[in-house]
TrEMBL record, chain A:
Originating species: Penicillium coprophilum
Name recorded for this polypeptide: Rab proteins geranylgeranyltransferase
InterPro entries with a match to the protein in the record: FAD/NAD-bd_sf, GDP_dissociation_inhibitor, Mrs6
One Pfam family named in its UniProt record: GDI
GO biological process, one term: vesicle-mediated transport
Automatic annotation (TrEMBL), chain B:
Biased composition (Acidic residues): 149-167
Presence of the UniProt keyword Nucleotide-binding in the record: yes
Protein name (Swiss-Prot/TrEMBL): Uncharacterized protein
Presence of the UniProt keyword Nucleotide-binding in the record: yes
């Protein structure tokens, strides 16, 4: 039988995270010989999705610190099943494989470049997308102004995402509505307003910008911050960061269908997308080997090796020759001048409730959302200076958990026990706000280090020590897929296919025979 | 089951992800080719990596669209299969009725699926190359086919039995795995079981129809067999209502994609 060493590879891709897997997809019809390996026994690296048992094993490995990792301090909580038998109401935890839990849960805006690439590469046919529906703000202090009987429980407010929403919103005053409409118009069509001194103002904190430029009342600051998905507090988020991202949100709504602006891939989000990309690469002849680690990498300068200068020693498979290699950031120490890494606290909770009120269908003909985004401002969690907490609530329509249960992905840009305490308190408040007899059946806590996007495009990093080796920069901890990843993948693709291939051919593929609907 | 379908309404349609597994050269791709195109190729090239095909299967009450992942039997690193059976609702595990070792491999696959795949996955065990046995009908044709097969076997790992195979084939029966043995195993493990011939078409459509019928209603609606299905999603609406349809819009999106 053939061994890996018998082939001279054009490309070796090390790691099966999103960037590397998308590169494998981009090269799937290039005729290049691609060897795609991962040191782990599973796909996805830090973008992986796990069953409960796999998550348990993962947590143990993280805590052992076997090799450098972007994760630390993982711990798992399991609800004591005997106590739920007493109450007799809670659905119990199902079998391990009934769950698919993402380490890096992110969704895609409808106008994301990745969305276009998935469509043009025909990979979307192997994926199912669910709508990300409403954005909600936790605002307990506003409940005083509500005089309805259910006022006490009404602490979550839907963030208006378009003009119709603004008009329909019952919790915003007429005056606020007018300023909000003016702001939304400005964000969508900035050129219509005369904004000569715009640049100076954009470095202001978002809240100052909103107040001084548009007299936006304070009650709307948090809702607008949530649309930007900023992981920093009001004070630390600049207008130049937030406004384009609010624009991204607003302009995405309706792009792929009525009533929503973002989608989530069923069965594990990014983890499902990257596996679909790897499958497409395998259909094109890419060779896959998990549990395979590179021990040593040698660049040979002698003329006889001019066609394949790299010699890589693999842990189990001997040595392989290649022209170039692309890897991830795990083993590389961030360089001077590159974006410093930050740590966020993450919590994944499996809850025995469905939160139907978080998934309204707001427009006729819209798909039923499977995901909702909730923001808990720091001050509502008795921690006024902390950054906001984000919750992504996933219904069982995402295929990630059994019926009658939900998965809640929580994150805050504040690591350690302090951050974890905020996450837990947010989940508690959500359950209490919904007034449901819900129990947290299972949860996983961990610290994830990466980078917060700052609007500056990332570049592929050439390896200092070895020519023809390139490193994808650290991935982002954002809730939404960061679009410049596609630019990085394109840059890498270009290095492999060379200049004779037209840029416009990137990710443009026909349906393979027998795979279209007709 | 839940509500009576109106006579004029189009039948509900569901996608089912199906993965083919089995040793090299047992005829996995040929089964798919027969099912999808009603065609057969002698001496088909081995599948490299994997292949993906789709085919609709019409049942009295609904239409099933199979999304078929055909894996390469020679895949050496066992790294691809987990990606294919992830979230698969059905698996077709194929062996060659003339090759006992291929049933052993099939049993390994069944065990791995039961250990790793989605709970509630429907598994069908399929003994292919029925045309090479006495049950397969035309004897002379079977013998010719066996010649072709023996060439294939040379490329594979087992050269030793090759002479016998040809002998048996000429005598009209190359069967080495009895129907009774395979049925017994399939019953023990709760698998659907068929013997097929991709070459003549015997039982091929039947396998896929049986799988389509065996997929639980709840799994069709949620896309995953979670076991305790009520036939409803958590929000009391069918999963089709929550699926975002990109097909209607993909042309427009693709255009925008390359314009920037």
């Amino acid at each position: 039988m053939e061994t890996l060493s018998d082939t001279t590879w054009d490309v070796i891709i090390d790691g099966t995270g999103a960037s590397q897997s998308l590169l494998a997809l981009a090269l799937s019809r290039s005729g290049k010989k691609v060897l795609h390996i991962d040191r782990n026994q599973y796909y996805g690296g830090s973008d992986a999705a796990f069953s409960l048992d796999e998550a348990q094993e993962w947590a143990e490995r993280v805590n052992k610190g076997e090799h450098r990792s972007t994760f630390k301090d993982a711990s798992i909580f399991k609800h004591d099943a005997s106590s739920s038998e007493e109450t007799g109401i809670s659905p119990k935890l199902a079998s391990s494989r009934a769950y698919t839990l993402s380490l890096s849960p992110y969704f895609l805006y409808a106008r994301s470049q990745l969305m276009s690439a998935l469509v043009s590469s025909k990979v979307f046919r192997q994926l199912e997308f669910m709508a990300v529906g409403s954005w909600w703000i936790y605002a307990p202090e506003q409940s005083d102004s509500e005089n309805g009987e259910h006022g006490a429980e009404k602490v979550l407010y839907r963030v208006p995402g378009n003009r119709e929403d603004v008009f329909a919103a019952t919790h915003i005053s007429m005056k606020s509505k007018r300023t909000l409409m003016r702001l939304l118009r400005h964000i969508i069509k900035p050129n219509e307003d005369d904004a000569s001194n715009e640049d100076d103002d954009m470095s202001m904190p978002l809240k100052d910008y909103l107040a001084s430029k548009f007299s936006v009342p304070e009650e709307l600051h948090n809702p607008l911050l949530s649309l930007s998905l900023s992981q920093l507090s009001q004070q630390d988020t600049t207008a130049s960061y937030a406004l384009p991202r609010i624009q991204r949100h607003l302009s995405s709504i309706g792009h792929l269908g009525p009533g929503f602006g973002a989608v989530f891939a069923k069965y594990g989000g990014g983890a499902e997308i990257l596996q679909a990309a790897c499958r497409a690469s395998a259909v094109g002849g890419g060779v896959y080997a998990l549990d395979t680690q590179i021990q040593d990498c040698l660049w040979r300068k002698d003329a006889e090796y001019s066609e394949h200068r790299l010699l890589l020693k693999l842990a189990n498979e001997g040595s392989v020759q290649a022209k170039c290699m692309f890897s991830s950031n795990v083993d590389t120490v961030p360089k001077e001048g590159s974006t410093p890494l930050v740590e966020v606290a993450r919590l994944i909770s499996v809850v025995s409730a469905t939160f139907p009120s978080l998934f309204p269908v707001t427009v006729e003909g819209a798909p039923v959302p499977a995901t909702a985004v909730l923001m808990f401002p720091g001050d509502t969690l008795d921690s006024p200076h902390s950054p906001p907490v984000y919750l992504q609530v996933h219904s069982s329509d995402t295929g990630e958990c059994p019926h009658q249960q939900s998965v809640i992905y929580c994150s805050v840009a504040l690591p350690g026990p302090e951050g974890q305490a905020l996450l837990e308190s947010s989940v508690d408040r959500l359950i209490r706000a919904e007034g449901l007899p819900a129990t947290v059946l299972w949860s996983l806590r961990y610290t994830h280090s990466g980078r917060l996007s700052n609007g500056e495009p990332r570049r592929l990093i050439p390896d200092d020590a070895v020519p023809d080796c390139y490193v994808f920069p650290p991935s982002s901890l954002d809730l939404a897929f960061e679009d410049d990843t596609l630019e990085l993948v394109k840059e890498a693709w270009k290095k492999v296919v060379g200049d004779e291939v037209d840029d416009a051919d990137f990710m443009m593929f026909d349906d393979r025979d027998g795979t279209s609907d007709q | 089951m839940s509500e009576p379908a109106s006579a004029n309404a189009p039948k509900p349609s569901s996608s089912v992800k199906l993965v083919l597994l089995g040793e090299a050269a047992v005829g996995k791709s040929s089964l798919v080719l027969r099912f999808v195109n009603d065609d057969f190729q002698e001496n088909k090239e081995p599948t490299i990596g994997a292949a993906f095909l789709t085919q609709k299967c019409s049942l009295p009450t609904r239409t099933i669209k199979f999304e078929i992942w055909d894996t390469a039997g020679q895949e050496r690193f066992a790294s691809l299969a987990p990606m294919y059976y992830r979230n698969a609702q059905a698996a077709l595990v194929v062996y060659d009725v003339t090759k006992p070792s291929s049933l052993t491999k099939a049993k390994h696959w069944v065990a791995e699926l039961q250990r790793q795949a989605s709970p509630g996955i429907v598994i069908a065990l399929v003994g292919n190359k029925l045309d090479l046995t006495n049950d397969g009908g035309d004897v002379s044709e079977a013998a010719v086919a066996a010649q072709g097969e023996s060439e294939e076997a040379q490329a594979g790992e087992e050269g030793a039995n090759e002479e016998d195979d040809v002998q048996d084939a000429v005598s009209g029966d190359a069967r080495k795995v009895s129907t009774r043995e395979a049925t017994g195993y399939a019953e023990e493990e709760g698998l659907l079981f068929f013997e097929t011939s991709a070459k003549t078409g015997t039982n091929v459509v039947d396998v896929f129809t049986a799988i389509a019928n065996a997929i639980p209603e709840s799994s069709l609606k949620t896309g995953r067999g979670t076991g305790a299905g009520t036939g409803q999603t958590s929000l009391g609406r069918s999963a089709e209502e929550s699926r975002v349809n990109l097909d209607d819009r993909n042309a427009a999106t693709a255009k925008e994609g390359c314009a920037c």
